[in-house]
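Table 4 source record.
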Amino acid sequence: MYRFLFLLASLLLSGAAWAQPVTFGASIQLTGPVANTGRYYKDAYDFAVEKINAAGGITIGSARHPIALRILDNQSDVNLSVRQYAQLLSQDKVNFLLGPFASNFVLADSSIAEKVRVPMVQGGGASDQIYSRGYRYIFGTLPAASNYFGSTIEAMAKLNPKPERVALLYADDAFDVSVAKGTRALLQKAGLRLVIDERYSTNASDFSALLSRIKSGNADAVLVAGHETEILNFIRQAKSLNVSPKLYSFTVGVPSADFRHALGKDANGASGMTAWLPSATLKDRWFGNAEEFARAWKAKFGYEPDYHAASGVAAVQALVNAIEAAGSTDPQKVRDALAKVSFDSLYGPVAFDDKGQISLPQIMVQIQDDKVVPIYAGKDFINKLEYPLAPWSKR
């Protein structure tokens, strides 16, 4: 049902009159295999809407409009998600769309937005394929998947000695295929030798054959593009089979507290990347700064935010800024305003390129002593990388 969060805001505003609500709609994975990440987007949308309404909602001309939020559970089923986005527009009559989690969902769901010419701003899909179709109504707050390992590979090339044999493993979904394609080019440019290049099935649970190949091929650095459950299975099986590369890095999981809790001490040494860390230098119109946002998020939801949370909040804020810039809820006017929007947020500077995607640098991070430590960004090491990693028996 609708989340009329603006009721609280109206009380805080001492009875000030509201104009008609502007409704945002989304279909999100609240149950099913990827619900653990999907919850970031539900919570991000709820939190952003609550905060914006408490500050007066959306200003269009002289009127203040509260945001109403309609969220449906797609049960981690992409076909259901497509049907629900059609429902949001045709039956629920939402004004604008927020996206789901995962690139394969965004690829399918954004076709609905494009067909009816209603903007969708999404913070859950990074695949380059989303933006290669010439669509005009899809905007995204995650940086390009093809450069996810960019900071990691730059760091690897500066190590002494640098890794000599690199293994690349990737799932067969849209996001991970885009990661792999970009990673091959980045490795070649950095002069790093790719000796294993293997695609595996999404939701794979058995990595024993791939780990045996890594061990027999003496790969000393392993890059894995996949979803969090797959990464957890990979690390657990690497330990059980005593496969100990000098470095391994993953596209997801590492910045998440859930990842560290799931693996315990075995999470230490894992590297990854993030487009966002909660820094006080990232200032925001509604939340103050990213550190304040992170504290408020933890107090409200009981778990720490990661870049998914910040990206989801930025998606809501992008729509609000575009509506205010357009001075209208007309979908075409808001779409044109989104193409020009530029603002500072707790996530970082938000502006979309001509394809609709944001550009933010990835920060290489590593789990050390049970904490996420920034390692490399902006062409320089920030902290010391634990490299080479000790064998499992000595950790």
